[in-house]
Design goal:
The structure holds two protein chains of two kinds.
Chain A (H helix, E strand, L loop, with lengths): L2 H6 L10 H41 L5 H5 L1 H7 L12 H17 L2 H9 L5 H11 L6 H10 L6 H9 L1 H6 L1 H18 L10 H12 L20 H8 L6 H9 L7 H6 L2 E4 L2 E4 L7 H32 L2 H16 L2 H12 L4 H9 L14 H25 L3 H9 L4 H29 L3 H6 L7 H10 L4 H25 L10
Antiparallel strand pairs in A: 1-2
Chain B lengths: L9 H31 L11 H4 L9 H8 L1 H32 L7 H13 L2 H13 L2 E4 L2 E4 L8 H25 L3 H9 L4 H30 L2 H6 L7 H10 L5 H30 L6
Antiparallel strand pairs in B: 1-2
Helix pairs in contact in B: 1-12, 3-12, 4-7, 4-9, 4-11, 5-7, 7-9, 8-9, 9-12
Classes of the chains: A mainly alpha, B mainly alpha.
Chain lengths: 513, 297
């Protein structure tokens, strides 16, 4: 290859393409290969882990059950002023009658009651008791009157024919809507055809309302309803349960009528969404702020005791000869590798009223036999057990930072006349602060989300916010609130990790020393 | 620190021994709770403390009855079987996917490496209770979120073996990623190039050259993933049902409801397993450091 060839044009590879291009091609191929290797795991994590977290975030604001169960009522409530102090007008009750009767058919009215019960207790029983009575309302008077006017109104097949006609549907919008919803409900829940099922009262009520509004469908028997005695649905509902006359109930339904709600988050902060705006919950219902504060305070105390106990150990390990340090390191790593349940059960056994620690204290004579220490099922139990469980997470980062502090610093300080304490406090300690920072954040993050240990040794006074989340998932079934509490905890942990990343770097996370 | 110099003052002497005593007590605090359950598990009585017979080292005071109970009780046996069925499969998934991804991540040009890394180690960062909450919601009714709405997947994973295995695999992945990438940092890339130059295809290169060298990292990652699944209780409590109960689940329920001394026997067995795992991981770590020339000898 001559010099002229090189300087003449762009540099080329053996097959004649320009070097720049073929390098870029190779680079791209390399990138694609790397991504292809990563892709399976990335998709796996997305589906098994990220999607669930995302689902939880969505659930913390999701409120579909109210607008999906009673859509007509929510629409009708638009015009109602909650502040006026009066229950809504008849139109809302008519819409609610249809919604509620359908919900009873789907058996979702109890779910809706349970949902609204989170916001105001008593609503669950209101919905349940009304669900038993809604089929027996006096609206059967309409049905009787229709059948009296024309027996065809008793025939489901005739109804099906009417409801299939476009002109009728246009003339009777309420009836068509109600009839369709009812037919769908029948199909979905019982697999029955509307054309073969007795027409329920709420459909005939809808027809009455359409006709009373002045509609005159062409292909239906003409019925003049103007002389009929109207049945007050507000009265019917109030008769089934006095609660429906209470404007407060309707205010709650209206407030929680949208598809997304900040309600769960407000609840998690001991606030509530009322028709008048956001306000504090009553004194006896404020638990979450206190629980968050307790979680943070206990985590700080645990972190503090971990520093107190971990620092001397890490210092000893970092300054001993390698061989003896390795042996002592096993004493730190063994608890680290031992099952969390094993360590928790050990503490549960040791700290009991009749357990080993109390027995020893009684035997020595520090504690009277009838006055044994209460070490478990309170905050003390949580602090002791969690300090033990998290201590290795403090010692290991401290140790790795202290390993890097050169002993010549302290020697230099001493040679310049510092005594032992000054040399430690002014020279060694400041150098070890990054280790304290790393260990503290790690311990704090781990402790703030702990569930198992507080649950087993914490009693009622030593439980964390995680225990409340678990309670809402498995016992109270208020999943939205559990999701909101979880989201708040997640935000807190993420913020701390951001700090941790700034100080230590996530990539520097090491395992087992 | 190491040795007390002969010229030390009485105060220094006192501090030296005082300091040793303090650290000794802290080591005692770390290790004693684990050790104390071992003799207690051989208690002949159903007590959680040392009986007078035990203190006098009377053989009558000791027995294997709690171990017999563990091996004879169908609840505990189901839990043991489940643990042994779930952890290895979850480990296999995390290790195979995790090792591939770690090799991908260690290439020199990976677009968006930080983000990918953050996503992959997130199961270790997010508190377990939050992971469990999310998985409980999502696995009961999984869907693929799209901009147009939810694309529902018509299966239920809660209360199934598959669901528990998938969730445990997700939790184990960060450990595999971290240990394997750490091993790959010291991997000499010219070795694979040499293999390729001598005519080996990528698959052969991987299994004959790269894999044997990073194997210690892969195995310790696998052990971490295994112990994560084997010890895990929060997620299995939410995602699993009584049919999938594992040893930690059974221990948790036992500790919460009616605490029985059988738990101590199980705990002792688990401590033995941890000791074995600890020794293996330490040996592997030393071997890999020696191979990479980080520590002489």
């Amino acid at each position: 290859m001559s010099d002229a060839n090189l300087t003449d044009g762009p540099i080329t590879t053996a097959d004649g393409t320009s070097l720049k291009k073929s390098l870029r091609l190779a680079l791209r191929r390399q990138k694609i290969r790397a991504l292809l290797l990563i892709a399976p795991l990335f998709l796996f994590i997305l589906l098994t882990f990220i999607a669930p977290i995302f689902d939880m975030l969505v659930r913390s604001v999701e409120n579909q059950s109210v607008p999906e169960t009673i859509p007509r009522t929510i629409d009708a409530l638009e015009a109602w002023e909650a502040g006026a102090g009066a229950p809504p007008d008849e139109q809302v009750f008519e819409a609610f009658y249809t919604d509620f009767a359908l919900a009873v058919g789907y058996k979702t009215h109890t779910k809706l009651g349970a949902r609204l019960n989170y916001e105001s207790s008593g609503l669950s029983s209101l919905f349940r008791s009304t669900g038993r009575k809604v089929g027996k309302f006096d609206t059967d008077a309409y049905a009787d009157a229709f059948v009296e006017a024309d027996p065809a109104f008793e025939d489901p097949a005739a109804w099906a024919t009417w409801m299939a006609g476009a002109a009728t549907r246009q003339a009777l919008p309420l009836t068509a809507d109600t009839y369709d919803a009812w037919a769908t409900m029948l199909m979905d829940t019982k697999g029955k055809l509307a054309a073969e099922t007795e027409i329920p009262d709420f459909v005939t009520t809808a027809l009455y309302r359409d006709l009373a509004n002045g509609s005159r469908p062409a292909d239906m028997p003409d019925v003049n309803v103007s002389g009929w005695e109207p049945v007050s649905l507000a009265g019917q509902f109030a008769g089934a349960n006095k609660g429906w006359a209470d404007p407060q109930v309707w205010a709650i339904i209206k407030t929680y009528g949208s598809s997304y709600t900040p309600g769960y988050f407000l609840n998690a902060a001991d606030l509530q969404l009322t028709p008048e705006g956001i306000s504090q919950r009553p004194e006896n219902q404020r638990i979450y702020v206190r629980l968050f504060i307790r979680t943070i305070v206990l985590s700080v105390v645990i972190t503090g005791t971990c520093i107190l106990l971990g620092y001397p150990v890490a210092y000893l390990l970092a300054n001993l000869p390698l061989r003896s340090a390795n042996v002592l390191m096993i004493l730190v790593l063994l608890p680290f590798w031992t099952s969390l349940l094993v360590r928790t059960s050990a503490w549960k056994v040791l700290l009991q009223n009749q357990g080993v620690i109390n027995d020893v204290l009684v035997w020595i004579g520090i504690v009277a036999d009838d006055n044994r220490l209460e070490l478990i099922n309170n905050a003390t139990g949580t602090i002791i057990a969690m300090t033990h469980i998290l201590l290795p997470f403090m010692i290991l980062p401290l140790f790795s930072v202290m390993k890097t502090i050169s002993p010549s610093y302290v020697r230099a300080a001493k040679s310049m006349g510092a005594n032992d304490w000054t040399a430690f406090w002014r020279i060694y300690f400041p150098n070890s602060v990054p280790g304290i920072g790393a260990g503290s954040i790690l311990v704090f993050i781990l402790s703030i989300g702990y569930y198992i240990t507080p649950e087993l040794v914490g009693g009622t006074k030593g439980v964390f916010i995680s225990n409340r989340i678990a309670y809402h998932i498995s016992s109270s079934l208020n999943w939205g609130l559990a999701a909101a509490l979880g989201t708040l905890l997640l935000v807190l942990v993420m913020a701390l990790y951001w700090v941790y990343d700034r100080i230590v770097g996530i990539d520097n996370v090491k395992l087992g020393g | 620190m190491a040795k007390l110099p002969p010229y030390a003052s009485p105060a220094q002497r006192a501090w030296h021994y005082g300091y040793r005593t303090i650290t000794g007590l802290i080591f005692f605090f770390l290790i004693a709770p684990i050790l104390v359950i071992i003799p207690l598990s051989f208690n002949a009585q159903d007590f959680f403390t040392f009986t007078p017979a035990m203190l006098q080292l009377d053989p009558e005071g000791y027995s294997l009855k709690h171990y017999r109970d563990f091996f004879g009780n169908s609840d505990w046996q189901l839990a043991l079987r489940n643990s042994l069925k779930i952890a290895p499969v979850a480990t296999l998934i995390s290790v195979s996917l995790g090792t591939l991804a770690a090799i991908g991540l260690s290439q020199s040009h990976v677009p968006g490496r930080r983000l990918i890394m953050a996503v992959m180690i997130s199961p270790m960062i997010v508190p377990l209770i939050i992971s469990a909450t999310g998985m409980y919601f999502f696995y009961s009714n999984p869907y693929i979120p799209t901009p147009f709405g939810k694309l529902e997947i018509p299966i239920t994973l809660t209360g199934t073996y598959t669901g528990v295995v998938l969730s445990h695999a997700a939790l184990g992945i960060p450990f595999v990623i971290i240990t394997v990438t750490a091993t790959l940092v010291g991997f000499d890339r010219s070795l694979t190039r040499a293999a390729a130059m001598m005519g080996a295809d990528p698959v052969t290169t991987f299994f004959r050259v790269q894999m044997p060298l990073i194997l210690p990292g892969v195995i310790s990652g696998a052990l971490f993933a295994f112990i994560t699944s084997f010890d895990e209780v929060v997620v299995v409590l939410f995602v699993g049902s009584a049919q999938q109960k594992t040893l930690p689940w059974q221990m948790f329920i036992g500790l919460r409801e009616q605490i029985s001394p059988t738990i101590l026997a199980v705990a002792t067995l688990l401590v033995a397993i941890s000791v074995l795992l600890l020794i293996t991981v330490e040996l592997l770590r030393r071997r890999s450091e020696r191979l990479r020339g980080l520590t002489p000898g």
